[in-house]
User: Fold these one by one.
Assistant:
Number 1:
Amino acid sequence: MALITKKPRGTEDVLPRDSYRWQFLEQLFRDEARAFGYRELRTPVFEHTNLFERGVGDTTDIVQKEMYTFLTKGGDSITLRPEGTAGACRAFLEHGLHNDPLPIKAYYLTSCYRYEKPQAGRLREFHQFGMECYGTQNPAADAELITAAANIFDRLGLKNISLEINSIGCPKCRADYHKALIAYYTRYRDSLCEDCQSRLERNPMRLLDCKVPHDHEIALNAPMMPDYLCDECKEHFDGVKAYLDANGVTYTVNPTIVRGLDYYTKTVFEFLSGDIGAQSAVCAGGRYDGLIEELGGNPMPALGFAAGIERLLLTMDAQGITIPAPSPCDIYIASMGEEAHKKASDLCNLLRRTGLYAEFDVVGRGLKAQMKYANKIGARFSMVLGDDEIANGIAKLKNMDSGEQRDLPLDGEAFIKEFTAAKLEADFNTNP
Ligand code: ATP
Ligand code: MG
């Protein structure tokens, strides 16, 4: 039989046998977010296109080349979210969250969509964990946000992750910097890649993060923003570094890191993984004090980051970090005969109500095949019910690891009590 179709290019399925890896990361993100006072924000997977044009910036690669945009039957232009910040800001404004006690701290765990060339670590549907904080200019907030990300990578056991930070100043100090950049790059204009030639006109800071080798080399000797910071921005950047030092977070200052849009201000940063090849950024973020105003709100400072979940998983794989496997089936109750099947079903449901993982035969297999299945799913205990067991109200509980057996009463309450005791004992023996 031929499949009528396969998954679209640049997308991935997460299969039942692998999803615990995602759940482990997601739980760790949620725990870390909570520890920093962040609560979850969920926004739609699609938004009006103009939100991203303004909120991401129409000179960015995302808006120029990567968006999944379509017209609805009603004629509206809709875009699948390419990132999480714009939607978060829109929700912040739409629900008047600025009236809540500041700072507002929100995190998200979402899928994102970008029409890119798929390769290792670069997908068309990918997933981000992000944190956004609204309502503070203070450098302590920048350092706190960066620390939250650093803690996550530490808790995941990741090594060889470097943090690079920079300040891109404010619109005031950036004006002089832009002039200097344009003067420098104009000398090389004809040798620059096509993208960079247009960046020179529209968004000169983005020249610094061009990935074409020749252009990258030119960028190394370009004028650097830290030399152009005004007093206020310099003081802010010094503050961020001082708080990072106080938090014990190591970083290097990399003046080529930019977020080349007017509403990004001051702090920008990236976490890079040394183990996953060219798509090495696992997390990126910064301050965007002008964005809320750009989207039609009253001025409100804000900052945030997003981490790529697929790239984090790739890094964990590359570093051989194992994610704890989910706990196996607590008990498999095999059965033979109609009465015994019903009893197995009943006992399993009682167990499940206490939070245990129990299975019985829902396929119609013979006893031997049932036990084979119990082994395959790694059941910790098993029990066989037949006519005799039903008649006597007693069955043998077998510890699949040690082979040890004991009698258990089949009466509901007593059964639960004694099974729980047997399981606790086994837990203690494997993990005293
Ligand atoms: P890159 O330089 O790799 O294209 P970016 O600057 O476009 O990254 P951001 O918009 O800052 O990325 O997104 C934050 C994070 O999301 C990235 O650091 C990365 O981990 C992840 N990410 C971005 N694009 C993709 C993608 N197409 N597939 C998988 N992960 C991605
Ligand atoms: Mg990109």
Note: The CA atoms of residues 293 and 406 lie 70 Å apart.
Number 2:
Amino acid sequence: MKKTIGIDLGTTNSVAAIKKVHTEVIKNSEGEQITPSCVTVRKKAMRAPEFIVGRNALEWLQQEPENTITAVKRLMGRNFNDSEVQELIAGHGLRYKITSHSKGSTNSLAIHAAGKEFTPDEISSKILEKIKNDAEATLGDEVDTAVITVPAYFNDKQKHRTRTAAALAGLKVSRLLPEPTAAAISFGVDTVSGDEGCTVLVFDFGGGTLDLSILTISGGQIIEMGKGGDMWLGGEDIDSLIIDHVLAETAREEEIDDIHSLIENQELSRKNRFLAELKSSVEKSKIALSDRTETFIEIFGLLLDEDGDAFDIEVELKREQFDAMLAPMLASMVRLVRDVISGVHFTDDLIDNILLVGGSSRIPAVIKALQDEFGEKKVLLHDRPMLAIAEGAAILSHRLGDVVECPGCGGEVAREKDICPHCGFDVDAHMVDKGLIDIVHTVAHDYYITLENDERFLLVEKNTPLPCSSTEVFQLINVEQELVHMKFHNVVNDKEESIGDLWLGIDDTDVLDEVEKIPQLEITLSIDENNLVSVEASLLEYPSVGISGTLSRGKADEKLFLSLEQSINDANKKGYDEFVVIDLLRRTRSILHTIRGVVDSVTGEVDESLYKQAEAKITKAVIIAESGETTYTKIYYAEAMIDSYGMLISPALKTRISKRIETLRNVDDDGSYDQTIKEQQKLADILNEPDLDWVHLLMTIEKAVEICHKTDKIKAAQFGSAIDKLIHLLMKGEESVAMEELLQKTMPEVNKVLDAQDRAGMEIHTDLRK
Ligand code: AMP
């Protein structure tokens, strides 16, 4: 039977667990419960690179730090220009290279390893892949589904990227579960039933982050009340404090003026080996200090002094020294806990327990600081703090599976059954006792859409329970508007963060012809239990004209959308005339169609050839608009000639025109700029043949009819009847005096109308208003 498991995909370590009757952590292929979240990419001659994951990758960290990726979770869903990422680059923590992705916008992010670019999702998927494969080997069954935990502060994009990583690893995600909720479940808070509600503060202090969450458990629901913490504070920072101490002590003992330069100047492989050894020895000592009162950090014969002689590092670290070192960090940690409590307007007595999980919460000084502040009884340390989150995820994955465990006899009961087939226990009546509780998550931020003049419209408010959706009707700016650019954003910590764009091309010319009043667009923004955002938009009066999908932010199509937006802004600045604008709009719709296929909506994989095609189409649209050599107005004109006055054109000439139109259309879609111009000329040459002189004249009068329809209905009717009379006379096959007279009377009027027509630039509208 296929299995479903729980995965704690951590910054430093990852853990997998499964719940059968009891919850068990699944050992990896190295026989360990914890898999370091570390990936080494190894170049292979003539072959795809090899990925080494976990403990073995940590070993490569010494030899190939530039190809070994640690803490990829910090980069998930992040942009290269994010201050957090820039901070990471500027700090000393990052030994591999990151840049913006060559296939993405300046905001995208690529990790460089073994001479290739990888997205954080791709690297993260390698960790998940190992967990899946190892779990399958250990369990002897296929593992196809998982509950994966994510930090409570992950935004939609970061969650989406986690889903993508799972999809790339071949795992279905049955739920993305906030880590604090998983921790609370592993403490058994779900056994609280009926009216006995309780409120807990989950204190998750891991390798990279401090994650705080207040959860209320009541009536079979877990409700997130508030969250906080510091995503840049964890065990690694504690290691750095000890490293600084060890280096300062060594410098003092060995009388070295500048120990950092000394390390920097060691031969590269020696330096890397030393730094890795230092880190590992410091971490071991830190862990040892949780159970002992003193420890030693020792590294023998690795560093060379200025004369090239090896010397040893031997530094003693006592618990009191360590506690003193930690004091400022502990103070800010307590402040962060206070901030979360006051953020939800709670007092301490409303918090029943502070639940400690994460490896760093084992540190006695951490436990003591919390006990001193909130009272000894309130603070509970998990028995297995580093495994708690995976265990919580496993419990939920089990509940979400097809079978549940009977509270009466412990046997398996199909989920849809009310009564246990083994012991007759009324499973349905004991939903809460059995632990089948609902987890209610809420929206973490406000969601806005940007309207005309940069106005913001609130679509979904923070703290709305998930899943939720909001439907609003907006108006286009203009009756003839053919493009709508919907831009969405969040407000996170008072800062606007774009969550992506969606474009609608209204290419149903029948609709536009019919429309008399400004069309209305109905937009529905939905957020599911996993915080995944999707948008549906359609014209209220013409529901078939619409678009739906997830948003583009940070994906390869974002860069294409940005250049498209740029080309439209430029066109508006230059004020192109109507013909150019019509042509550009037609091209834009075709470009949007191409862009839509660029990113696979499930795996996020990029179709390179479509990406290039879209890029080329945008460049061509810009050149054609600048040159004024429009294709589509020429095609529309030729088609309109045949449609309206085909009876005046010989069948042979009609066939030649149709063939030219077809070739021009194909070349315009796929060909180069030069080929397009050449084909345009060939069509123009046929249309210039003398046999079509009369038809051009009729087309000119028809243009005047079109203009007068809006401004002078009587004149429109007069021109219309002139067209009918002319056709009638032309069909008779002779050019008569009556025709001459009619033309002499009509044409000066027609020319007056056409000359008066405002040929000033036409603006391309893409906005909405409420
Ligand atoms: P986690 O992110 O929950 O896997 O926690 C990993 C972090 O916990 C690493 O920084 C470890 O060094 C740290 N850690 C693990 N065990 C202990 C311990 N007994 N005492 C102090 N820190 C620990």
Note: The radius of gyration is 34 Å.
Number 3:
Amino acid sequence: MADCLFCRIIAGEIPADVVAETESALAFRDVNPQAPLHVLVVPRAHVANAAELADTDPATVAELVRVARQVAVDAGYENYRTVFNTGEEAGQSVFHAHLHVLAGRRLAWPPG
Ligand code: 5GP
Ligand code: ZN
């Protein structure tokens, strides 16, 4: 999708600090980090959200979760939070599915 920010990052048209990649997923640092480690793990193929990815390509949902673990462990964190925001009211601002990986500070619950 030409007008999708994360598709453009995947295509290399917009620079990103990539920390991990697999055949189906790319992980890069969030430009506005909310924790010492804040990475976004995205499917290479465009889908709007996590549930749509589960419908069309469930193996890649599992891949995102595995890559999230790898990114956290490689950064030295055994404790980390993974978040999929779905819909504007839930905080989704980029409508290409992405798994947030946050670590490096105590994370409160419930989230804001
Ligand atoms: P959402 O709000 O959709 O759950 O998450 C989108 C995330 O993308 C936000 O945390 C935001 O900081 C991040 N983001 C927005 N634009 C860019 C960008 O150009 N590069 C990177 N690396 N992250 C971005
Ligand atoms: Zn996209």
Note: The first strand starts at residue 18 and ends at 21.
Number 4:
Amino acid sequence: MSAPRPTRPSRLRRAPGAAPATRRGGGARLPGIRPTALPARGGADWYRRGVFYEVLTRGFFDSNNDGIGDLAGLRAKLDYLEWLGIDCLWLLPFYPSPLRDGGYDISDFLTVHPDLGNLDDLVEFLDDAHRRDIRVIADLVMNHTSDQHPWFVESRSSRHNPKADWYVWNDDDQRWPEARVVFVDVETSNWTWDQQRQQYYWHRFYSHQPDLNYDNPDVVEAMFGVVRFWLDLGLDGFRLDAVPYLFQRDGTTGENLPETHALLRQLRKEIDAAYPNRVVLAEANQWPSDLVDYFGDGDECHMCFHFPLMPRLFMAVRREQRFPVTEILAQTPEIPDGCQWAIFLRNHDELTLEKVTEEERDYMVAEYVKDPRMRRHMGIGRRLAPLLDGDRKLAELLHAVLFSLPGSPVIYYGDEVLMGDNVYLGDRDSVRTPMQWSPDRNGGFSRADFAQLYLPPLMDPVYGYEAVNVEAQQRNPSSHLHWLRSILQTRRQFPVFGTGTFELVPCGNPSILAYVRSPLPEAGGPERARRTGRPGRGTRAGRARARNGDEGDNPVLCVHNLSRFAQPAELDLVRWSGRTPVELLGRVPFAPVGSVSYGVTLGPYGFYWFELIEETAGEQPAPGPGGLA
Ligand code: NOJ
Ligand code: CA
């Protein structure tokens, strides 16, 4: 296997697969670069309690005013991200790329796109993030490369070159007809004819993104070298892009194959052996029964996006009924210990409608697509706020559901200020416009000339940067930004949102989505207090300890009204009778749970989160802000 083409800074490069000087203990061990200390807080399963924030470096902040966001700009905004209260950043691809698929078309896996800076900038950014206990994961695009990647350039050059089998070639375009075309609105086949090599090559996405051939051990070793390179540098893990498609087999759809899972187990083993406390997060747009396979027996990915849940959250609020959400959760199998779902409302892609029925897709399109231009691939190219017609109460409700369902929430940059979109831009650029920092020129994103910006900022009167920006919302304590920050602070105090069990609470009113998140039985409680002599979770001291994040907590009851009208909720809480619900945001105690159903009234799109406190002799619930206890 030959070494990759050197690009700057060459002192940091080595052949993929070559062992680094040392790679134990985490942190960069590459020659000529000072190590990045990994964050201390959180323990090995930090990702189960963390809040993730997805960021497009190109769109976040431009430090050198060339019109393009960059790593130094991202670093300059770490104060803001720390203030917001996020635990882990997920960076969209920052590698060299012709940018025909937002950077998912990589032409060099081992450095940074020059628009965004260089490896030194990345390390400085990682240092600074880690000092603040903010972790950083990045996209790892294993499935394909750009057709500009030197591996493909060599592979296509003839049928007999050292990289001839690094991609998937065939003499005709008839093989594997069962494999669907993913970008169905743009591509007509998964095969494209290559004039030079006089053969077809295989691609699951754009025709300029040839798939790598994982049946070739050299490809596997090269990609594992890429993984080691970035983990040595100090990344906390990866989002594994398009991971279901790594292999092809006759008579199959080429998705979720056993060979793919075997490769993921191998990858996980490599990572566990040398890089503690890292995480791999699978991007697999699959049904729940296939999705859980990406956790393996706890020996594949630590995390996996719950794709089918996302459109159903939007469906549920439009139908004003919990059924779409409860149905998909009922179909979702348990996951192995130490694993976690990643859940989200929106991301950098279209709101995908791949994993819904045809009838549900028609419904979503009828409800959420007001202009045919909003369609993208199999989904809808819109951001959160415009999808909700700018309804802030509804945005709060959806965030409350997102932050309390099982899984680690992933926030898409800009959604914390309810940014809008631009459906007149091509492909998914509609949702990738510059972050809106202030009412200044270019929304405070860049001081470059407007025409120089990588994409135009929003300037419409409703969602434009004069109306929607971080600075204004930071100054206004009643803004959505402050609301979001404060609910994240509340969530952080209750580890049960990350690691607790989940139990639906029966309610006759179909608009009410209610559930209890409970600590795992072994996490605390009076029984444990008796056994261990340490305070149990139902006591004041136990609660204080839980606030320190080292232990489970009381159960938390979450009640959400999915309707735009006020609704009554009669909840079957008999299992918790005797406990006092204390509302989490204001610490106001409600009437204790009795032996009959528990009645709560919720305003339009209202929600309550209650800690269910079990009083021990002599204890009272903590007083509310108005002294209501
Ligand atoms: C999934 C990414 O999220 C998407 O943006 C990209 O187009 C495809 N993978 C292909 O790389
Ligand atoms: Ca720049």
Note: Confidence is low (pLDDT under 50) at residues 1-29, 524-552, 625-629.
